[in-house]
Amino acid sequence: MKITIVGTGYVGLVTGTCFAEVGIDVTCVDIDQQKIENLNKGISPIYEPGLDAIIERNVSKGRLSFTTDLSSCMDDTEVIFSAVGTPPDEDGSADLKYVLDVARTVGKTMNKYILIVTKSTVPVGTAKKVREAIQDELDKRGVAIEFDVASNPEFLKEGDAISDFMKPDRIVVGVESEKAEAIISKLYKPFTLNGHPVIFMDVPSAEMTKYAANSMLATKISFMNDIANLCEIIGADVNMVRKGIGSDSRIGHKFIYPGIGYGGSCFPKDVKALIKTAESVGYPMRVLKAVEEVNDNQKSVLFNKFSEYFNGDIKGKTVAMWGLSFKPQTDDMREAPALVLIKKLLEAGCHVRAYDPVAMHETKRRIGDTIYYGKDTYDTLDEADCLFVVTEWTEFRFPSWGVVKKLLKSPVIFDGRNIFDHTDLEHFGIEYIGIGIKQRK
User: Fold this and answer.
1) Which helix (H) or strand (E) element contains residue 286?
2) Looking at the structure, do residues 331 and 415 belong to the same domain, yes or no?
3) Within 10 A of 235 (CB to CB), how many other CB atoms are there?
4) Is residue 180 located within the same domain as residue 134?
5) Of 28, 231, 266, 350, which is the active-site residue?
6) 3-state SS of 172-234?
7) Where is 59: in which H helix or E strand?
8) Are 219 and 163 in contact (CB under 8 A)?
């Protein structure tokens, strides 16, 4: 079987590479010439553990190739996955320009039956627009060629995407015909041999499933952050509360860790898009609007704690920052809380010394040399007044507290991910301020 993936961003590249890994011939297409040249050399545009090795292996075996010319794939391909970006418009709705560009190109160049599968996260009704765009181009050509449109939303966690794709909890697919269902079943058979199901449904339901899933997870995060803030006020410990409610099987332990807000490419964009979709049909998503508001406010919580600790006298202070990416195991800085914190610190006249294992290059691309990029965790602490823990990278979990105490001018840590135990730090004379934990006097 030969397939084509359009878009070599996070979703497209992982999808294409994993399909190639199970023996499918895959061509990935992107309009970025430099990106394609780099990929053909085995250079990935994203950081994802394990991805580079799989790309290199499948390129060398001839199962994975990259091109900028979608039309050159049309004669051989059986399935086209559209995995192009759907960036938010100014009003928060999903921009479908690139999705429809792909559809029009398919309509202009297809010469036989093709199944077009939307992999990008798109609003309900997008498949209909894709079908109309393809059919419009076929009508202009005066040809009648059968095709199907399907929806196959991705559920990949950045930092664990390879495992998620190869061993999925479920594969959600929206189809309109038995032929399309048969093709998808064949394509995903290597991934379902271990019992993971393909859940077939109508196309609008598949499109909605992706938004509903991400919005539910975002809701859990914002709810827990709201609980954490209340815990601080009334003197409860959110870590104990989390354990108490997480043991309830109806709730579970996942996505109830308090922190400094969610970021990344999915949750912020998808929550906004679903709110806009509801508004377009006259329905207010009141819960999701509150989720978004809580998250926006939570990204400033470390700055507010920092300012309060120093009684507002923060101009000229130097803040060490461990972590920049929105989560560990990725260099993704989209909607990262670190960017909000850095902006607030710089506007207040502070200096920032930051270190991240993989995201410093991407941060520098976004904000330039407005901050100091440390050589390692300890380099950032030199002459710093305090430490912010922003991303819970594993390498931050067991520092030498004696060295930390010696390097910090003011031995205080603002832990935005609650990865440390206050008793450990107090033993070394370091003050600890976490999220949802009443500050000890």
Assistant:
1) helix 286-298
2) yes
3) 8
4) yes
5) 266
6) EEECCCHHHHHHHHHHHHHHHCCCCCEEEECHHHHHHHHHHHHHHHHHHHHHHHHHHHHHHHH
7) helix 51-60
8) no
Beta bridge partners of 114: 147
- State yes or no: pLDDT of 314 exceeds 90: yes
How far is the C-alpha of 336 from the C-alpha of 323, rounded, in Å? 10
Q: Are residues 83 and 228 in the same domain?
A: no
Determine the Cα–Cα distance for residues 154 and 55; give it in Å rounded to an integer: 19
Residue 241 domain-assigned (yes or no) = yes
Answer yes or no: 28 catalytic: no
Joined tokens for residue 434: 């976490």
196-220 tens-digit pLDDT: 789 999 999 999 999 999 999 999 9
Give yes or no: residues 291 and 303 share one domain: no
Continuous segment of H or E residues that includes residue 342: helix 337-347
Neighbour count for residue 264 (Cβ, 10 Å): 20
Domain around 290: 211-297
Distance CA 196, CA 192 (A): 5
CB 28 within 8 Å of CB 65: yes
One domain for residues 7 and 131: yes
10 vs 7: CA distance, rounded Å:
9
- Residue 339 falls inside a structural domain: yes
Task: Encode pLDDT of 337-388 as tens digits.
Answer: 999 999 999 999 999 999 999 999 999 999 999 999 999 999 999 999 999 9
My answer on whether 293 and 305 are in the same domain is no
Domain count within the chain: 3
